[in-house]
């Protein structure tokens, strides 16, 4: 199976659709925003084990407020409670700053590199272990809608993902990217444990006349 020839290089599919599919872009951005909120929640849960519970609860309550003064109060509580080397970065991230300001606050830990949207998406998939299942599926659907190429490894790993709707999104992407590779893979996917995925596979098998 020569999946690399159709999904790994950036020329064949990269710019075939110059206009991004707005709906999928917004869905992907919302999924990443939820991922950010979940990470912040996990940080507060961890801090509750390390610092006085009342102080962390008060900080979290104020930071979630729509009032700028309450947010400032919550950040002040954290500043006086938390004792970690990257405290300044944590506070800047929790502040109601722009994403550019938040990125600047992390510059000592990680260097931000501007990328084209398609390159950024592939970069996200390289760090797929840090994504939620929903974000991963959204990345695949975005790649399909925008006709962006993914690497063979990224595609095959997602086809083997334990979550059904991620495998379903990977099948939809591969149908766009390389029907020839899809036809070769479909017989091995007939016994998928997810009824929706197995139904999708059977429909494609019938459509492509695979025996």
Account of the protein in words:
The chain is an all-alpha fold and 211 residues long. The two termini are 18 Å apart.
What sort of overall outline do the alpha carbons produce when their principal axes are compared?
Answer: elongated
β content, as a range?
Answer: under 5%
Distance between the termini: 18 Å
- Order of helices and strands, N to C? HHHHHHHHHHHH
Largest sheet: none
What is the radius of gyration? 21 Å
Notable characteristics:
211 residues; mainly alpha; 12 helices; disordered N terminus
Secondary-structure blueprint of this entry?
Elements: H1 4-7, H2 22-50, H3 53-63, H4 68-81, H5 87-94, H6 99-105, H7 117-126, H8 133-146, H9 152-159, H10 164-177, H11 179-185, H12 195-208
Helix pairs in contact: 2-3, 2-8, 3-4, 5-6, 7-8, 8-10, 9-10, 10-12
Summary?
With 211 residues, the chain is mainly alpha-helical. The protein has helices at residues 4-7, 22-50, 53-63, 68-81, 87-94, 99-105, 117-126, 133-146, 152-159, 164-177, 179-185, 195-208.
């Amino acid at each position: 199976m020569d999946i690399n020839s159709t999904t790994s290089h950036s020329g064949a599919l990269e710019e075939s659709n110059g206009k991004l599919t707005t709906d999928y872009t917004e869905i992907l951005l919302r999924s990443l925003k939820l991922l950010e909120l979940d990470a912040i929640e996990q940080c507060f849960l961890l801090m509750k084990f390390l610092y006085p519970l009342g102080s962390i609860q008060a900080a979290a309550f104020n930071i979630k407020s729509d009032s700028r003064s309450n947010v400032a109060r919550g950040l002040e509580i954290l500043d006086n409670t938390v004792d970690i080397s990257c405290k300044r970065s944590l506070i800047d991230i929790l502040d109601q700053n722009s994403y550019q300001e938040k990125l600047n606050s992390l510059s000592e830990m990680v260097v931000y590199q501007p990328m084209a949207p398609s390159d950024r998406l592939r970069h996200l998939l390289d760090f797929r272990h840090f994504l939620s299942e929903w974000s991963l599926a959204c990345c695949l659907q975005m790649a399909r809608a925008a006709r962006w190429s993914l690497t063979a490894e990224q595609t095959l790993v997602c086809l083997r993902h334990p979550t059904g709707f991620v495998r379903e999104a990977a099948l939809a992407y591969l149908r766009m990217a390389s029907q020839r590779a899809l036809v070769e893979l479909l017989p091995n996917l007939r016994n998928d444990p997810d009824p929706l995925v197995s139904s999708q596979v059977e429909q494609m098998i019938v459509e492509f006349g695979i025996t």
